[in-house]
Every structure is written in structure tokens, then in C-alpha cells.
TrEMBL record:
Lineage of the species this protein comes from: Bacteria, Pseudomonadati, Pseudomonadota, Gammaproteobacteria, Enterobacterales
Matching NCBIfam families: bioD
Gene Ontology annotations of biological process type: biotin biosynthetic process
InterPro entries: DTB_synth_BioD, P-loop_NTPase
Cofactor(s) in the UniProt record: Mg(2+)
Family label: Belongs to the dethiobiotin synthetase family.
Enzyme's top EC category: ligase
Pathway: Cofactor biosynthesis; biotin biosynthesis; biotin from 7,8-diaminononanoate: step 1/2
Name under which the protein is recorded: ATP-dependent dethiobiotin synthetase BioD
Catalytic residues in the record: 38
């Protein structure tokens, strides 16, 4: 049986990649054939091998099943803009192509983390959002919440949007991007407003490498 989850956030730059890589590492230790899939990335770096996205590189590095970079990240763009601004005839994103990419990943792996771009309703072309693809594929969703002022409102709104899409909402993680004194208050309040399970917290670290080098006590989704 193939297990897969779509990682979304209350906004962009909330820590989706941090959560994704930690989950891949933990699942690998449990013996799963793991793989990360970053269907769309923007703000990529031009290299001698083509456009490369740091998030996708982390996913590739922390997957124990090896894929070509282009299989992990089939749609990459140089400019740091919403995908619908960049979608063009030379690199045209469609829901079908996203699904084909996922099938390639599923052929070799049985535990897959799919990392979104931006928030839940990130548009990819015309009036189509990445959420429409997640709904089409019926992929369970995990929400990453950046612990800061405003996160409660963003969480409630995003939760309602996910539930309205009819997909399974598997739970949420708190990511502490700064030494916020009211972390537990935020988590307590969010738990009062949403029913989905709290799966764990990424503590604040001055050096992001400390997160990847240490064992973080978070739960895998079910």
C-alpha cells in the first residue's frame, strides 16, 4: 500500500521543507521506501545542470529511493513569482502532467511526501489552483503553521478551505521560526478551534542545520 501526503502551509516560507525532510528521514528509519515530490518550484537557481530549487534538492537528498532531479521537481522556474504568472507554452503546467509525475514517483516508493508551493490556494494557471490537483488525486493533507502573530486566523481559514475541498486532513505541525514566548498559547488556542490532530512542533533553532542534525520529536501522520 502506498502512503502519501500533501504538505501545505498557512502561507509561503512557513517551513514546509523542514517538516518534509524530517518526515522522510523518520519514515526511512522505519523501513519505508521514501520519496519526496516537489511538483512546482519558483525562484530557482540557474546551474550548469539547469534550474535547481533548494527545497527540491533537500527532498531528493532525504529520499532513500533515488530519482532524477527532474522527476522530483518536473516544473521549475527562475523568477520567484506565483506559478500562474510563469506558466507558459514552453513549460506548461497541467493537472495531468502533475499526476504523471506522481505516478513515476509511486512506481518505486511506498511512502511519499508531496510538498506544495506557497499556501493552499496557490494558483497554477487560469482559475486552477494546486489544491484542485490535490482534490483530484484525493491526497491526504498536512498543514504546517508558522508560529507568529496572525497564525491563528490563518490556520482557521486554511483549515476551513481544506475541509471544504473534501480531502482528508491528517493533522498539523507547529514551526517555531523565532523565540516566541507565547508558543504554547498559540498551540493551545489552535487546538481549541480545529479538530485535526496536533502532530508535533519544530523548536526554534538559531542555526537551521541543528534542526536537521538532531532528532526532532514529532509524530508521523497516519
Amino acid at each position: 500500500m502506498i502512503k502519501k501526503w500533501f504538505i501545505t502551509g498557512t502561507n509561503t516560507n512557513v517551513g514546509k521543507t523542514i517538516i518534509s525532510t524530517i518526515l522522510l528521514k523518520k519514515a526511512s528509519k522505519l523501513g519505508f521506501n521514501t520519496a519526496g515530490y516537489k511538483p512546482i518550484s519558483t525562484g530557482c537557481t540557474q546551474t550548469i545542470n539547469g534550474l535547481r530549487n533548494q527545497d527540491a534538492i533537500f527532498l531528493k537528498k532525504n529520499s532513500n529511493i533515488k530519482f532524477k532531479y527532474e522527476e522530483i521537481n518536473p516544473f521549475s522556474f527562475y523568477n520567484p513569482l506565483p506559478p500562474n504568472f510563469l506558466n507558459n507554452k514552453n513549460n506548461h503546467i497541467t493537472l495531468k502532467k502533475l499526476s504523471i509525475g506522481l505516478k513515476i514517483i509511486q512506481k518505486k516508493s511506498n511512502w511519499i511526501i508531496i510538498e506544495g508551493i506557497g499556501g493552499w490556494y496557490t494558483p497554477i494557471f487560469k482559475k486552477i489552483t494546486l489544491a484542485d490537483w490535490v482534490k483530484k488525486e484525493k491526497i491526504p493533507v498536512i498543514l504546517v503553521i508558522k508560529m507568529e502573530i496572525g497564525c491563528i486566523n490563518h490556520t482557521i481559514l486554511t483549515t476551513q478551505a481544506i475541509l471544504n475541498s473534501g480531502v482528508q486532513f491528517s493533522g498539523w505541525y507547529a514551526n517555531c521560526i523565532k523565540p516566541e514566548p507565547y508558543i504554547l498559547n498559540y498551540i493551545y488556542t489552535i487546538n481549541k478551534f480545529i479538530k485535526q490532530p496536533f502532530l508535533g512542533m519544530i523548536p526554534y533553532c538559531k542555526d537551521i542545520n541543528d534542526i536537521y542534525n538532531n532528532t526532532i520529536n514529532i509524530n508521523l501522520p497516519k
